[in-house]
Amino acid sequence: MPDSTPTALTPALVQILRKIPTQFEDARAIAQKAGIDYSSLMSAVSSLEEEGLVEVTREEKKSIVLTSEGESYLNKGTPERRLFATVQKNGGNGADGGMALDAAYSAAGLLDSEKGIALQWAKRNGWLDVAKSSSGASTGTSGAPVFRVAKAPDEKTLFSFERALAQVLQKAAVADIAPSDLSLMLSRKLAAEKTEKSASLRATAKAAAAISDAGKTLSGTISVVTPELLRTKAWKGTGKAFERYDPLAPSPVVYPGKKQPLRAFIDEIRDVFLQMGFVEIKGPIVEASFWNFDALYVPQDHPGRELQDTFYIKTPEKSDISSGEKSTLVENVKRVHQDGGDTGSTGWGYSWDKAVAEKNVLRTHTTAATCRHLVKAAKEGKFPVKVFCIDRVYRNEAIDYKHLAEFHQVEGIIIDDDCTFQDLIGMLKIFYSKLGFTDIRITPSFFPYTEPSAQVEVFDPVRKEWLELGGCGMFRQEVTRPLGIKQNVAAWGQGLERLIMSRDKLSDMRTLYRNDLDWIRKERN
User: Fold this and answer.
1) Could you give the CA distance from residue 507 to residue 378 in angstroms, rounded to a whole number?
2) Which residues contact 413 (CB under 8 A, 6 or more apart)?
3) Cα(334)–Cα(97) distance, rounded to whole angstroms?
4) Are 95 and 169 in contact (CB under 8 A)?
5) Greatest alpha-carbon span in the chain
6) Cis-peptide into 452, omega within 30 deg
């Protein structure tokens, strides 16, 4: 047991000891009442406990909290229950019945990311089967896969998992939740275990005497330097001494205002390009297919132009691409697609359709802005040209940890007769090294608008895999000549979210958009 007359008390410890009651009280409540940072309080309590001046009881409490996906399932219903209820309601009973898969998914209101989950668990629970439609089936063509009810569960079973999710939201004790439901929630990542540590404090009988003794001992100790103290030179008085400074003492964590991490990273990339002598350009978000695809020598039957990959605009459905000077550009692009024009290429060998090129899309890449700038550069005739674009693009993607339907792309070109593919690779390596990447590789690839083409990848230390960032290459003459450019053009386009995901070791790209205040505070900027 420590000596009854503590000698190590500082003014700061005395102040904190005065705030601790003689009856046990929650430490966080004490810190809040006293206006003391909790971590500072507990650090001081550690010293006071050693001196026998404070008694501490510590407790760990485990709880279960729903993830965002778990909350979604609680609000909307689990994907498997929604799918089963839809099939059961729409003729999925009986050997000759059935509901077409796509129709069932659509009627159940399932997202692309939920379809596989619904199918997996509906089959695992034994609720649904997938069979071939018979000629007499009311939905689906003969032989097409359909859902059929395999076993109709009772109402209690059907909703039991959602009731378990509700228990978690209502902060029920872990012991009150069925072990099978709890295990299933954790394995499906609909809930997560959380350990909360708490402490209760009380001052011991020795505290009052220690405070009194310290008041006599520390009466001449200066713990705060003020302008008045310096002006009057009171610190030089007899019996005066400065409190010993402890550089290892914890201090309150301060979270000053700062930019959202993704916004800050965009500004960082912009600064890197500007330092390298590039000029920023912009382009419209709603873009004609002509600029988004056709001007880039992407054939009109390319899979990337299908609805499952691209968002088409309903209103306005089309853009005017051929009025005035644009008519010459359209004719040049048409000829290149059909027979190669004057580029020496044979083209794609099909009949190019202007109506397809007029359709509006949410741009799938910022290369559309690059194409527009090629025309501007050809008119101005001032070379070399070095421009970049950082902006949002849109693709009809199934959302997961490394895919989003809306994301940012870093796009740029160098227009110069002396620019080569090796220059492009060297520029990209310098660019990535300025952002802190050292593990970079360039691998051969294919894109309709560049030749040679390559893929830029960086190593992801979290998932221990190479992460694809985007493509690069030299624009083909089928792209540059119709737009009036005769010089070499080096081009590249990389995904920005994947870049920050790898550099800052994020396991999920969606973290960047979740507005998690704790992550935003702690993320470097």
Assistant:
1) 43
2) 370, 373, 374, 385, 386, 387, 475, 489, 490, 491, 492
3) 50
4) no
5) 106
6) yes
Edge-to-edge strand ranges of the sheet holding 450-460: 279-280, 385-394, 406-415, 489-495, 465-475, 450-460, 440-444
Number of H helices, E strands in the chain: 20, 17
Cα–Cα distance between 514 and 160 in angstroms, integer? 29
CA atoms of 330 and 336, how far apart (whole Å): 10
CA-wise closest residue to 148 among 226, 64, 87: 87
Pairing of strands 279-280, 191-203: unpaired
SS3 labels along 448-514: CCEEEEEEEEEEECCCCEEEEEEEEEEECHHHHHHHCCCCCEEEEEEEHHHHHHHHCCCCCHHHHHC
- Both tokens of 352, joined, read 């190019």
Q: Is 482 in contact with 331 (CB distance < 8 Å)?
A: no
pLDDT of residue 6: 45
Phi, psi of 320, rounded to the nearest 5 degrees: -80, 115
Q: Is there a contact between 472 and 453 (Cβ–Cβ < 8 Å)? A: yes
**Nearest partner of 386 among 489, 271, 283, judged by Cα:** 489
CA-CA distance, 92 to 103, in Å (whole number)? 12
309: closest CA among 214, 405, 229, 238? 405
Report yes or no: 77 and 118 within 8 Å, Cβ to Cβ: no
pLDDT of 191:
84
pTM over 0.70: no
Helix (H, G, I), strand (E, B) or coil at 403: strand
Whole-angstrom distance, CA of residue 220 vs CA of residue 214: 11
pLDDT, residue 101, reads: 87
pLDDT score recorded for residue 2: 43
pLDDT of residue 207: 86
Q: Return the DSSP state at 251.
A: -
Per-residue DSSP letter, 136: T
What is the Cα–Cα distance from 399 to 509, expressed in whole angstroms?
10
Q: 353 with 337: CB under 8 angstroms?
A: no
390 Cβ contact partners less than 8 Å away, ≥ 6 residues apart: 266, 269, 270, 280, 366, 408, 409, 410, 411, 496
Q: What pLDDT sits at residue 138?
A: 44
Say how many Å lie between the first and final Cα of the chain, rounded.
48
Q: Is 52 exposed, middle or buried (0-12, 13-18, 19+ CB in 10 A)?
A: middle
Residue 514, pLDDT score: 79
Tens digits of per-residue pLDDT, 446-463?
988 899 999 988 777 766
Q: Within the chain, which residues score under 50 in pLDDT?
A: 1-7, 135-140
